[in-house]
Amino acid sequence: MGGSIAVVVADKDYEASVGADSTLTGSALSISAINRKIDAGPDFSFGSLDDLDAFADSLADLATGKLLGNSNYYVEAIGGAGGSGVAVQGSFGVMVFSDKLTAAVGNNTTVNVGTGAASLSSSADFVAKALSGALSASTSSAAVGVSATVIVSEGETVSRLGQNARITSAGSFSNTASAKQDIRSYAASASAASSAGVSGVAGVITSENTVEALMQRGARVTISGAGAVSLGATNDFDVFALAAGVGVGGTAGIGAAATVVVVNNTTRAALGDGTSTANRAEINASGPISITAVATEDGDLFSVAGAAGGTAGVGAGAGIYVFNTTTEALIGDYAKV
Questions:
Q1: Segment 122-149, tens digit of pLDDT
Q2: Which residue of 54, 65, 174, 250 has the lowest C-beta tally within 10 Å?
Q3: CA–CA gap between residue 43 and residue 36 (Å, rounded)
Q4: pLDDT at 252 (0 to 100)
Q5: Going by C-beta distance under 8 Å and a sequence separation of 6 or more, which residues neighbour residue 26?
Q6: Terminal C-alpha separation, the chain
């Protein structure tokens, strides 16, 4: 009997900001918070059952190092069990990240850059990779292999002009927040036995990522000349998930695989609600004004199950994709544009 468990939890704050009740005067202002992507390139090409066999061989041959290469977040759990009796192996990789990235001008702060540019930006771009593999074999009885990867993403990327903050003079103003998630999950299990070989595999990914570009209640921007004002939020979600289970037995073989992806992302660019004209969000500009929110989701899910047995072979696979996203570009109550 064998077991392998790997867990990664990340809960970090990144912030670039000007504090509350400050006064700034200069020729330009740029505030940026950035979380950069780390990626060693392609980790595995899946195009056929031959590739799946190669992937299983890689699991068996793995000794040290990261099979999937470097990334911002990485978890790997691989194990094997064998014997003349019942052989059982379970491998589980779990990853949870709830990092927060913020670029902000604090409440009640005043900024004057004349005809220069004023900009706020927060940008998160990351790769998360999870791998679990279970191999089990028995020469005289049953072999059971169970493998699962679980990834939970709950990050926030925010660019914010705070309550009652004022850009009293600027040649242009931009407030942008962007996030790119590249999530890759691999779960595989193979079992072989003289009587029964049973493999069960699951890959579960949930994303509740929030991206917001905000002008809060009472915030005001005044542009000198014909300069542009832009508020923009973009949220890109890309997922690849593979669950593969193979069971081989002299009497019976059972293989089952399931992949589940749930996306509850929020993307918002907004002038906040006021309670009256006295505390409304306001943009005073003779040039172009844009408020945009864009979200994209792209997913490739593979659930592969194989089974062979002298009497019976049963294989079942399922892939489930659930979307419940919110994408908004808003001008709030009492706001003036």
A1: 999 988 888 887 777 777 677 787 888 9
A2: 65
A3: 19
A4: 78
A5: 112, 113, 116
A6: 67
